[in-house]
Design brief:
The strands form two sheets. A five-stranded antiparallel β-sheet has the order 4-3-7-6-5, with helices on both faces. Strand 3 (about 75) and strand 4 form a beta hairpin. By secondary structure, it is an alpha+beta fold. The chain has helices spanning about 20-25, 50-55, 55-70, 90-95, 100-105, 165-180; strands at about 35-40, 45-50, 75, 80-85, 110-115, 135-140, 145-155.
Length: about 180
């Protein structure tokens, strides 16, 4: 644990304000769910809660099946990071923080499909180089909230996605959203 040097008092309703600098650094916005942990020494730990992270083993198996079936890079994200990735190039993005553009697209519930080299394609992770292949992005909706995305990425400029790949990604996102509701 790292000390910040910031001290805050609890108000009469039991609230503590998380400083703006920390919220900005950790990408915590109004409405972001936080999980609360305690230990025997009296420490309280707040951790961003990821409903998709709860299904991380299942998500990993799902993207492995998607990647094996399609031959493309498949990944599942939450609002903050790539929860699971499989296929060619998965090591470069697995567990990494997602890009601001992807975060905004998830929040806007935008299903997107890009052809190889098309302008405006969305990088999956921060500081990602320009993608050569096609890309399909489908937000995962759970109980009316956009909680992440399923993404399929082509390997090179020859890969073009059609209706079958689009439907496969939509089905995966729909299925994961329903699993989260249970």
């Amino acid at each position: 644990m790292k000390a910040t040097g910031i001290v805050r008092r609890i108000d009469d309703l039991g609230r503590v304000v998380i400083p703006k600098e920390i919220r900005r650094t950790l990408r915590i916005k109004e409405g972001t769910p936080l999980e609360i942990f305690t230990d025997r020494e009296g420490e309280i730990i707040l951790k961003k809660y990821s409903p998709i992270g709860e299904l991380s083993i299942f998500a990993k198996e799902y993207v492995e099946a998607l990647a094996q079936t399609t031959g493309f890079l498949a990944c599942i994200t939450d609002h903050d990071q790539v929860v699971a990735a499989a296929g060619h190039g998965s090591r470069e993005i697995a567990g990494k923080e997602i890009s601001k553009e992807l975060e905004e697209s998830i929040a806007a519930r935008e299903a997107r499909c890009f052809r190889p080299g098309e302008k405006g394609s969305i990088p999956v992770i921060s500081n990602q180089k320009e993608m050569e292949g096609a890309e399909i992005l489908q937000p995962i909706i759970c109980a009316g909230d956009a909680i992440g995305a399923v993404i399929l990425i082509g390997k090179n400029e020859k890969d073009v996605f059609g209706d079958a790949e689009r439907m496969l990604v939509q089905t995966a996102a729909g299925f994961l959203g329903r699993q989260m509701e249970q």
